[in-house]
Design goal:
7 strands; 7 helices; two-stranded antiparallel ribbon; Dna Topoisomerase Vi A Subunit, Chain: A, domain 2; binds zinc ion; Helicase, Ruva Protein, domain 3
Length: about 200
């Protein structure tokens, strides 16, 4: 016998798909949303729909934006001579919090992972190479994660860009192996950026 009415079961199943949410948490959140005043649940649903419909990708760097260009790409105060390559928009937030980087970014939307069937062409790497040829920056900083896939992705990009940019550097590894950039604290990340080495 099914204990939950189907719409509630559906809600729990969708919550379980979220990162860091196990079956118990999914149940707790679902019951919380449905108990008492439901206006908070309606606001949450509305915010999800609004974000999904309005937030797209910057046509230059693939950061999240609700316009054509993101707030960083359209800021004339940023230094367009340096492009920092990251895996996800959350990495941009992490680096911005260090206040130590004034250049631009390029989000490749993941990392090369042959075991998961993810190749360079599935990521925004071809767009990065085109962009570098077009914008001719002075330096590319590779800030992919420090696990095996992150290292392989940086190596691949460095090889592809060789000859197209004067300096290619890799952030230093104060960051624990296997962790994504956004888990590093701001000081560690600022040091990693400062201590970057030429590829
Ligand atoms: Zn942008």
């Amino acid at each position: 016998m099914e204990i939950y009415p189907p719409p509630l079961r559906e809600l729990i199943n969708e919550l379980k798909r979220l990162p860091g949410i196990g079956p118990r948490s999914a149940e707790r959140i679902a019951f919380h949303l449905l108990s008492g005043d439901r206006s908070a649940a309606r606001r949450l649903a509305g915010a999800v729909v609004e974000a999904v419909e309005k937030i797209g990708y910057c046509r230059r760097c693939f950061n999240f934006t609700e316009r054509d260009l993101c707030s960083i790409c359209s800021d004339p105060g940023r230094n367009g001579r340096t492009i920092c390559v990251v895996e996800q928009p959350t990495d941009i937030i992490a680096i911005e919090k260090t206040h130590g980087f004034g250049g631009l970014y390029h989000v490749i939307s993941g990392k090369i992972s042959p075991l998961d069937g993810i190749e360079s062409g599935d990521l925004k790497i071809p767009q990065l190479i085109e962009r570098v040829k077009r914008e001719k920056p002075a330096e590319i900083i590779l800030a992919t994660s420090s696990d095996v896939e992150g290292e392989a992705t940086s190596l691949f990009i460095a090889r592809e860009l060789r000859g197209h940019v004067a300096k290619i550097s890799r952030i230093a590894h104060g960051i624990p192996v296997g962790s994504s950039l956004n888990f590093a604290d701001e000081i560690t990340l600022a040091r990693a950026m400062e201590g970057r080495r030429e590829f």
